[in-house]
Amino acid sequence: IPMASKNSSWSFPKGFWWGVASAAYQAEGAAKAEGRGPSIWDVLLHRVTGYTVANQTGDIADNHYYMYKQDIARIAALGVKTYSFSISWSRIFPFGNGQINQEALEHYDDVINTCIEYGVEPSVTLFHWDLPLNLQNLYGGWLSSEIVDDFLNYAKVVFSYYGNKVPRWFTVNEPIVFCDDYPLPDNYFTNTSIPKYQQPYWCGHHVLLAHSGAYHLARSLGINGTISFKNNGGYKIPLTNSSADARAVQRAWDFNEGWFANPTFINGDYPTNLKDFVSDFLPDFTDAEKQMINGTADVFAHDAYTSQFYFAPDAGIDSCVQNKSNPLWPSCANTSYTYSSSDGGWNVGPAADPLSPWLHKATDWVPAFLHYIADTWKPAGGIAVTEFGFAEPFEVQKTIKADILFDPIRSSYYKDYMEAILIAISEGVNVVGCLAWSIFDNLEWSDGYQDKFGLQYVNFTTQERAYKASFFEYVNAFVTYGQDEVVPHYVPS
Ligand code: PNW
Asked: Which UniProt keyword terms apply here (predicted)?
C-alpha cells in the first residue's frame, strides 16, 4: 500500500475528528425486527417497480442491525476516531409519533455504548431520509408544518436518552436531496394540494424550522455535543469568465447550499436570489422565526464529493424562469462536467462508475471549495466534510489478496482528498473533521447494491466483510499528519 510522502508543512489540528459513516436504511437491514415500523423507503423499494436496479430493497442490507459489534470492532482495529451512523425514526416511533418502542431505544444505546467501549466516538444523525411511512400518509411528511412537532418530539426522546454520550449530532442529512425528491412518485402516498414545483420549498421550510427547533431543544436539555445539519453539494466553477456564467454560479450556490446555509449561518432568511426567483410562493419566516433559525449550526457540516462547471442557459434567463418543468428551473444554472480549455486548467476527472455519473474526481478543487465556505458563511465552529467518497465499479476493483481488496481509483481519491484538506488547513481554513462515505458497501438508494462506496467490501450472500486498500490509504493520512495518536489493533478487554 503506497504511503503518502510526508510534507512537513501539513498537519491535522489536535482533536481533529475523522471517521467513517453509514445510514440506517442503507446498512441495517432487519426491516421488520424489534418493532420497527415502515418508512417511505420500504414502500419506494417494495412497491415502485424499477425504483432500484433489480428491485433490490433494504430488507437485509449489511445486516448491520445485528452485526454492529463486529462492524465497530473492525473500524476500531484500524484506529478510526469516530463512527457516524443514523437512527431510524420508525424504529423509535414505529408510527412516527405516539407509541415509543423501547427495544429500539435500547438497541441504539448499545450501539453508542459499543462505540465508547472500543474508543470510537459516536456521531449521530437523526434523519437520513427514512421518514416513518405513517407521517407521509397522515399529512404529507415534510410538506406539512405538522412534521415540525413530530420531529421535535422524536429529537427530545433521543437527546434525553443518549444525552452527553454523543459528542456530535446531525439533525437532518442533505435536505437539498430529500426535499428535491419531493414530489415522491404518484399513487403511493397521500396526494397533496401543493403544486409539484413548489414542494421542495415547503419541505425545506419545515426542515429549517425542525432543525433550528431541535437545536434549541438540545440546548435546553443540557446537551453539550455539537449540533449541525448536513448540507451538501459540489464546488461550482463558472464554465467561462462571462458575467452571465458568474451569475449562474451565484444562483447555483444560493439555490443549493445557500437555501439552508444562509438562514442558519447568516441571517435566518433565504438568499435574495431565492426570494427573487420563486417569490410567488416561497414561504416567509416571521421575524421571530428568523431569530430562532439564525446561529443554529455549531459546525458547517458539508457533504462535498465533487465539483461541476456551471453556465447560464442558452435560451436566456427569462424563458428559463417561466418554464417550471425545465430541469434547470428554478436556479437556471446549467451544469456540466466538460473538461475544456476554458476551465482554467483545473482537473475534473471522469466519473468512475456509470451508476454515479454525478461523481467526478475533482480533488484539486477542494481547497478552493473549503475557502469558499469559510469566506461565505464564516462558520465560527469551523467546517467538517461530513461525507466524501468515490464509487468504484466492482470490475475495476482488483482481487482480494491477504483479505484486502485493492481499489486503486478510490485509493487515489482519498489520498488526494486528504492532501487537499491539509492544503486548506495550511492556508488557514478551520477544518475540524471529516467522515468518509462509507464504512462498507451498502444500499446506494435507487442504485441498489451495484454502486460500491465502501471502504470495506461486503459479500451480500455471506455478509463477510473485507478491508479495501483505500481504507488503509485514508487511515494513513492521520497516521502521517495527525497530532493525535492513531490507536490501531485495539483489543477489547
Ligand atoms: C449522499 N450529489 O447523497 C447520501 O447522504 C448518502 O446516503 C449516499 O449514499 C451518498 O451520498 C453517496 O451517493 C448524495 O448529486 C446524493 O451531489 C447526491 C449527491 C451528493 C450526495
From this structure: Glycosidase, Hydrolase, Signal
Around ligand 1, the residues with Cβ closer than 6 Å are 23, 26, 173-174, 177, 232, 234, 303, 305, 358, 387, 437, 444, 453
Q: How would you class 322 by CB atoms within 10 Å of its CB: exposed for 0-12, middle for 13-18, buried for 19 or more?
A: exposed
Half-sphere exposure of 230 (CA within 13 A, CB side): 31
Q: Is the reported ipTM for this assembly greater than 0.90?
A: yes
Q: Which atom number of ligand 1 is nearest to the Cα of residue 23?
A: 7
**Distance linking the first and last C-alpha atoms of the chain:** 30
Question: Ligand 1 pocket: which of 26, 174, 235, 386 to mutate (most atoms <8 Å of CB)?
Answer: 174
**β-pair type (431-437, 235-238):** unpaired
Q: Is the dihedral of CA 457, 33, 181, 46 positive or negative?
A: positive
* pLDDT per residue as tens digits for the range 297-354: 999 999 999 998 899 998 899 999 999 988 889 999 998 876 544 444 444 565 667 7
Q: In 3D, which of 345, 477, 465, 492 has the Cα closest to residue 414?
A: 477
Task: Please tell me the distance from the alpha carbon of residue 209 to that of residue 226, in angstroms, as a whole number.
Answer: 18
Taking the centre of ligand 1 as the mean of its atom positions, its distance from the CA of residue 388, in whole angstroms, is 9
Residue 316 φ/ψ region, left for φ over 0, alpha for ψ in the -120 to 50 degree band, beta for the rest:
left
β-pair type (82-86, 121-127):
parallel
Nearest residue (by CA) to ligand 1, atom 14, is 177
Q: Which atom of ligand 1 is nearest to the CA of 129?
A: 7
342-351 pLDDT, tens per residue?
Answer: 444 444 565 6
- For residue 22, report the distance from its CA to the centre of ligand 1, in Å: 11
* Secondary structure element (H or E) that encloses residue 83, with its range: strand 82-86
R_g of the chain, CA atoms, integer Å: 22
Atom of ligand 1 nearest to the CA of 442: 9
CB atoms within 10 A of CB 62: 28
pTM of the model: 0.95
Ligand 1 centroid – CA 453 distance (Å) = 10
Active site residues: 174, 387
Helix (H, G, I), strand (E, B) or coil at 257: helix
CA of 173 relative to ligand 1 center, distance in Å: 10
